[in-house]
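Two proteins, back to back. First:
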Amino acid sequence: MKTLPAIGAIQRTNVIVACAATLMLLVLRSPASALSCLLGAGVVIANLFVLAFLGRLLLASAAGGAGSALGAVALPLKLILVVGLVYLVLFRTGIDGVGFAAGVFTQMVAVLVEVARANLAHNPAERTV
């Protein structure tokens, strides 16, 4: 049986991966790229936090029967808002695109690490092959 990691575990791992990526970019590329990496990681961390909050709100409103239409509209509006803010940040300022992309990529790495950790911790017999 496969288990899923908690959002808090993903966020903690994302902070660790983002700090490591930022330090690597600081050493290997430039301070601007490292700062852009932190910004990209901050965007995806905030996005996941808001998504989790809206998901809980949507489930609570669906269970109560009231306000589910507002919750259903809130998720696409959040997506449009995040995409718009990322567009403004990337194309209206001097943010390094490579560093920003590296920061955004830390979320995917954190999810993969936490899924692997949760499944290996839940199924220790499957580790020995």
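And the second protein:
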Amino acid sequence: MKKILYCSDKPSGRGALPFAVTKTSKLKDVYNKDYPIVVFNEKFLRRRNIKNSHLAGKVCFIHFPEEGNNNLKILKKYNFFDYFTDEDKKRDVLFKLERAEKFLQYKSKVSDLETKLVSKDRKIESLILVDPLTGCYNWRYFLHRAQQELQRARTYHYNISFLVVDMDYFRQINEVYNTKVADAVIGKMVDIFKECLRKEDIICRWREDEFFIILPYVSLNGTCKIAKRIKDKISHHKFRYKNLRINMKVSMGIVSFPEDVISNSRDIVNRLSRCLITAKRRGGNNIVIHSHPKLEKELKEKKKKLGIDELKAKIEKLNILSTRDLLEVIYGFARAIEAKDFYTGRHVEDTASIVEKIARELKFPEAEIENIKPAAVLHDLGKVGIEESILSKKGPLTDHERKMIETHPSIGAEILRGIHILRGMIPAILYHHERYDGKGYPLGLKGEEIPLSARIIAIADVYQALVSDRPYRKAFSREEAIEIIKKESGKQFDPNIVKVFLKVIKKIK
């Protein structure tokens, strides 16, 4: 049986009760959590001011000296579980106490179920209203909360602002790198938002690269300062994932009450969208305020200028220019590499020749061969960002210098990411130092996770490095280099491409 507390003015003078109890004459003992069942002597109860709120979770009885007409009235007054008298038989009293115990057990089970239901409700709410990647609220929540906050601001006449943040060229992160890198960038972006915002500001994620932020009690001027702080912090931050370093820019739009005439969440979204359109047309990395007088004029002018015929002509002209200038851009980059590192400049031409022959042996379409050749020429482009003292060092590299060298694939990828016509070459350039066994860099990709173009360039690159003089060693012979390539088949290199390479290299004198 559970612990029972018996409350009486003279606990020591009372005769034996038909059950084991702890006796007290102090009211503070009643509120002790250790006693789930409390029996109040009638006289003790009458002389005390009992607070029912302090008895939550307890089952209480009243002990009367005898049966009387007022016993039930007193019980109802205190809303206790039951009562007993000195006239009751022992078995009747014990039966009532057993009922009390069962009641407590059922109450505990109900409490546990309620706790579990609340927990499940929170999980369901989280699934419905929270973005699983970032922990921010989602689009559904934004529409509901924006309406609430705007209505409150209109009713109580205070400022409220809404901010949209869109990552410029974010789709390239998915295309050039992979979803893990993109998720890491998104996560860090949210961290930057939180650093620049207050706890009461509400961050909501809409699409993968777009966020809406609610700023209660913030004026237009204050929102402009916050937006600039976020933009500058993102512009200067190097987003890192393993050996990758990525630069990001954002376009932003601001809608603020009472400066903007807005009455519901649809108005907010429409105006923020117009701000983003303008920011993107200005080239991105821009903050646009909806209430700015020049915005409406700019949007109308853009609509007039972008006629279908003119747009077609502009696209055609750009295509002609991009095709004509492509080779010029590639070999301009190649000359920049050669100026930085003479070995790399000469080495890439031979590497590109081997890569082309392997691609033809693998029956690549002509269009893909035309892509992989310039990628082979530019595969070491990122070395323009490495100090010459490291590139030309005659002795072994330190750990720090090795880490610096390992950044050159991501530097090359970042240089080309902003050049649309060269973007298709990025996977080959970024991953040509990955190993087939997964021990390479920058991301530790394994097997066929590595793009085919990168696997081809990797073999040609290493072969040319082996047969060339380096600052720290003499060149290997052709036969020695081929043997090293064979030994690394299935480890550093794709075994299928090694077979093709061996076939190709025999034809090269």
